[in-house]
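User: What would this chain look like folded?
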Amino acid sequence: MPMPSSDTITIAAGTVQGLHEGDLTVFRGIPYAAPPVGEHRFAPPQPVLPWTGIRPAHHAGPNAPQRTRAVPGLDATPLIGHGWSAGDDYLTLDVWCPAGARQALPVMVFIHGGGFVLGSKDAAVQSGQTFARDGILYVAINYRLGVDGFLPIPGVPTNLGLRDMIAALHWVRENIAAFGGDPANVTIFGESAGAMAIADLIASPLTKGLFRRAIVQSGHGAMTREVGVAQRLVKKLADMLGVTPDRAGFERVPPGERLLDALEKVSLPTARIDLRGADGREPVFGISRFIPVHGDDVLPVEPLAALRAGAGADVELLIGSNREEMNLYLVPTGVREKLGRLLSWFVLRKSQPRAWAVLKAYGMGNGKKPGHALTDAMSDLVFRWPARRFAEEHRGRTHVYDFEWGSPRYDGGLGASHGMELPFVFDSLATCTGEDGLCGTAPPQDLATRIHALWVRFARDGSLPWAPFDRETRIVRNLAAGDAVYEPVMPAAAFLP
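Assistant: Here's the prediction, encoded as structure tokens.
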């Protein structure tokens, strides 16, 4: 079989060689920062050492240490990747280039999700092939996760994972023109934890001028903690590992299985750790222990407060959520059907001080099963209403969507769950189709074609075929129905800032 032909491009650190795949050219595993090991492990991202000769950019390369978890009855590999691919040099990115002459193309930079503890740029659902096919220069990045990326260890710079993303965006600004991209027309987008991170980057003073547009899919800026609260997690992990709760202690535990064992243990619902703030709320509702913190130079204040002060006003924003986000967490496991009144209250009470009132507002006691009321309430509390709050506070042009197509999986119970929009956004339904696939056996290709085209259109020039959102008009686009409607304030509004 003949080898694919190659292409070389010279960037600031040296010359890289990509491969032609059909009409496209792909460069994989290009370093944007030095490997985060040794003296660089708990340091801000450091410059790449230049190389001589041609560096092959043919393989995905390693990713951040992580451990994936199975979802009953669901092939999650297309969404989160194959798990940890070990290696030191994982602060890397891929570039997918359109065919033909390349000059001043719109650029899209994707930041993967995974609860800040797993995932990679290489998950099949988010291949850059379709965006490059449609004239977008597509970039996807890896970043530090878990303890190394999002644990505010005393003596270590905070928010190292966010700092990695910022370093990658600087790389894009400095190098993307060599690939044919326009550094003045960059759209960053991401899903879940990747979207939460993007919301934080919009609010950060360190990202001014690095991107023009942002797409926040099932994310928002409310999932950050005060440093002092997050350091309870530092102490808990240090106790588990038998080390001091500081840089010297955690440097004694190399990235690997022992650290992942502790991360997994502290992430269990049974782990005895209180991460509620002074208001009695836990902003992540137990989904992930590891999230960004505010109160440093990356996020001096909470993101919503930063937006109110004008942060990110020059960024055009598309933000939205899926209609039934929490179904992914509570339907495949069977938890939604098993929960009674008391246990539903107990689950919610750990994160929300007015748990009984929330459950009643979402129909418990009015004929709705307790587990269904909890699932619906958490979809709004965790994802949907905070996204609307982010849209309300953003001072720049803002459009809001709601994704409402429901998967038939689990006898129709999965619905428009978390992650469901990804194969539609990327026009990659084949990766999530099948008996064990997220989308079932026959998802609608016409919907994927329409949604993908909206994302491409927004990245090209910021245009969208529905009116912007504000707190009075509340115009939201239903992506499956294709209509833009007034969306009433959700019941969750009474229980969140």
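The two ends are 60 Å apart (CA to CA). If you want, I can go into more detail on any region.
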